[in-house]
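BUG: 3D viewer hangs when loading the predicted structure for this chain

Environment: internal workstation, default settings.
Expected: structure renders.
Actual: progress bar stalls at 90%.

Input used:
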Amino acid sequence: MQAKGLTDKSRLNKTELAILIGTAVVTMTFASTCSPLYPFNPWDDANCFFTLGRGITHGLVPYRDLYEQKGPLLYFIYAFAALISDKSFIGAWIAECVMASVFAVFSWKIAKLFTEPARYTIVLVPLITGLTYTSRLFNFGGNAEELCFPLLTVAFYFGLRAIVKGNGLPAKSDALICGIITAALFWIKYTFIGFMAGFCLYILITAIRQKAFSHLWSLIWRFFAGFLILSAPVLIYFIANGALKDLWEVYFYNNIFLYHELEGNAALSKIPVIRNIYIPLYSTIHLSIEFPKFGIMLLLSIVSLIFIKKEHRKKVIFLFVSTFVLTIGFVFTKTAFIYYYVYLVSGYFALLLIPCIRGLNFISKSFKQNPGFMKGLISGVLIVFYLAALLLNKNNYLLFQKKDFFAQYRYAEMINQVPDAKVLTYDVMDAGFYTAAGILPSNRYFCYLNIELTYPAILEEQNRLIEAGYFDFIVTSYFCECDWDNYVLIREEADTYINYSGEKALDGFRLYKRI
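Structure tokens produced before the viewer hung:
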């Protein structure tokens, strides 16, 4: 069944692909501290993932041998990064470039579904990409949300293409890919599957309305086949290593039941059912205000829906609402949340291209006497804005610094004086001391995590090993004044860095050595 209106013009030629992929690589090279232009990624989140990835390449099993809380697929991605370079984040930068390319390519494909862009308007994609990846929500780079939101853009494209080309139901081959995408999201961080749940809800209601039950069944079994294609290797890995119980306990049970939730300030956050609406809505609005560039882009993406032609608009809005509501509904379930959670909805920013392209087409057609000059001027202005986004990136203060700029490498020189040194990062997350020193953790609970209050086993085990003098060195936060009988403070440093708010913040570390 073919819908009236625009046909599918979303296929890209080689020139478009080269521009889009090149844009993504340039953007990630300047935006992410994983890139070769930066000496190191100091973000503790990325370092925790990288330590797990490095551990996998040396035979250690996530959860069983090294305790961390994200999904196993994220660690496998970082294991791939470690195979490329065990002492730098270049492998992670390559993964970022791949995912940024996916975002750029499918954003442009979405734009071409609903517009007929002039060739020069493709320069809008670098600008949208640059603004997206220089958001302060991005922080230093390498986080799970950043690697996953391009997958949502792909699924969103499948749904939009189905609306434009046919009756609103995706192609059967798309269902298989969506199953794989869902599995990837599930095994990176299962709260990310809200978008796909909303997508499935949209498909189910659309199929029932059209009584397309045969087509629905073909989509369902292909979707689950795609989910199993990726899930089977993950489960086989843990079964083969006798760690299926650890996978269940750490990734599912502890994350679901042991995470401490703060008491909500608003009365609405305490009312059952109502809280499930209030918390996601409040969290999204609060973070959109705290990060205004992100908030403006999200708001304009929503407004962009009115620029969809009437014949497709209702279905597109239905698809957007069902996926957006469940995305934030799955991510924001508690009154305590971390700022970068909302970064996951950046996959919708492709919608910004639709009114922008139509506006540029109108402007260029208005100057009939010298259209080439106007197109060149517009392109130049957009490129300047794109470069400005890269130059104003909060991470630029770390560009081209030497490695010894970081305490991690200065401490590594002292740690490496002891052969096969055993190191613990205590009361602080893994900030890269294991990577800088070229070592791996020697105990399961190798750093601080946000679960100690409800899972005391971490601190109990660490304190027992410290009392026994198990570690050669202990790294703590500069703000943690510890007094151990068998360890002496040998170095302490305080420094400033640019935090996710774009402001200077005090940070530092203390290094203790066993007596």
